[in-house]
Design the sequence.
């Protein structure tokens, strides 16, 4: 986690800036995202589709069984595909804590970089869902007057829509990182 | 929830959760918990509304479908209250609000973990909310507002909810905020 890695060319450090930590997103978190997406799609669409098949076809039991097989194959295929794509997606996330600011970097098809100076941080919010608690990862959202509280809903197990990099998503040991952020925010020189 | 506040000058002696770490030069001033009555009030209002909906549904329901009202009523008036008040107790016990000389830490551990930390110098407003039952039972919600919150949506952000003596808590925070701000502000 703290190991010095090569920083992407899109990120440039100031002359007197020192890297304190480099964090990456945990790969396991992508599985939780996939599972929750699949579960949501399943619960939203499956019931009505089965009811539809049962109404349309007289020998509906056979049709439903075929449909379920199809669904299982589709879900398994989707899962494998997303796990592969997710690996590269997760590898594209890099969070750099320096002695002056936080740099949130994501490179996956597109590139997005957010930089925030410690002096601009107003709130630090840590979110951990139930699985994240067991596996000890979580998301840390540093709020600033520019990136405000809509991203910090009071329920950690809700999935939040965020197309821009506003949080240190799914990093290991979030409580420890939050404490380090507080220390840098409050006691930095 | 196993650490004790480290010094003798602490005003409240609730344990500090192990997920929260305090900086070496930071001093804990208060550790507050959420009062159970604040949750009970909320849950009871919810159950009364649910009871009203069921009573209305019962009066408009055709007689051939009324059999469903018995299991529904058993669930809503026996099982659901027991679940709600039981889980509510665990939910309430998962709240800790730690006020130090540097910051306010709001912590909730229930299924997931939610932690918000605000340093005193970033607080722009302090809002106290008390409902009618809160006024009677002397509990309320103290919201430290910062520039990072959009109002009125910011009102939904995790705050010091359901604490006893909310005005005392407000005053303590206000003193700390004042002490942190530069002279003349």
Sequence:
């Amino acid at each position: 986690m703290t190991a010095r890695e090569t920083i992407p060319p899109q990120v440039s450090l100031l002359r007197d800036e020192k890297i304190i930590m480099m964090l990456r997103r945990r790969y396991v978190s992508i599985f939780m995202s996939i599972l929750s997406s699949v579960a949501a799609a399943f619960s939203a669409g499956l019931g009505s589709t089965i009811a539809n098949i049962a109404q349309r076809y007289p020998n509906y039991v056979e049709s439903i069984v075929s449909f379920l097989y199809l669904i299982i194959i589709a879900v398994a295929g989707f899962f494998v595909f997303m796990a592969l794509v997710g690996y590269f997606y997760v590898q594209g996330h890099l969070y750099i804590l320096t002695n002056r600011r936080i740099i949130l970097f994501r490179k996956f098809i597109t590139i997005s970089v957010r930089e925030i100076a410690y002096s601009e941080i107003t709130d630090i919010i840590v979110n951990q869902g139930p699985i994240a608690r067991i596996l000890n990862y979580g998301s840390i959202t540093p709020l600033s007057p520019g990136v405000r509280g809509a991203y910090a809903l009071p329920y950690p197990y809700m999935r939040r829509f965020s197309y821009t990099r506003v949080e240190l998503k799914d990093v290991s040991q979030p409580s420890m990182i939050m404490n380090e952020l507080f220390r840098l925010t409050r006691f930095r020189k | 929830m196993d650490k004790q506040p480290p010094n003798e000058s602490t005003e409240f002696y609730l344990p500090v959760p192990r997920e929260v770490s305090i900086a070496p030069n930071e001093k804990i001033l208060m550790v507050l918990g959420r009062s159970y009555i604040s949750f009970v009030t909320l849950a009871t209002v919810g159950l009364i509304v649910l009871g009203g909906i069921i009573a209305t549904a019962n009066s408009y329901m055709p007689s051939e479908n009324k059999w469903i009202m018995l299991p529904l009523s058993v669930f809503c008036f026996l099982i659901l209250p027991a679940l709600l008040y039981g889980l509510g107790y665990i939910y309430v016990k998962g709240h800790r609000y730690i006020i130090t000389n540097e910051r306010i830490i709001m912590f909730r551990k229930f299924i997931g973990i939610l932690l918000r930390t605000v340093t005193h110098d970033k607080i722009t407003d302090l809002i106290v909310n008390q409902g009618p039952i809160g006024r009677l039972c002397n509990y309320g919600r103290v919201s430290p507002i910062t520039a990072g919150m959009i109002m009125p949506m910011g009102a939904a952000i995790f705050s010091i909810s359901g604490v006893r003596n909310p005005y005392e808590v407000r005053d303590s925070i206000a003193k700390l905020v004042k002490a942190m701000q530069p002279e003349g502000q």
Notes: Chain A touches chain B through 35 residues (CB under 8 Å). DSSP finds four helices and seven strands in chain A. Residues 51 and 128 of chain A are 37 Å apart (CA to CA).
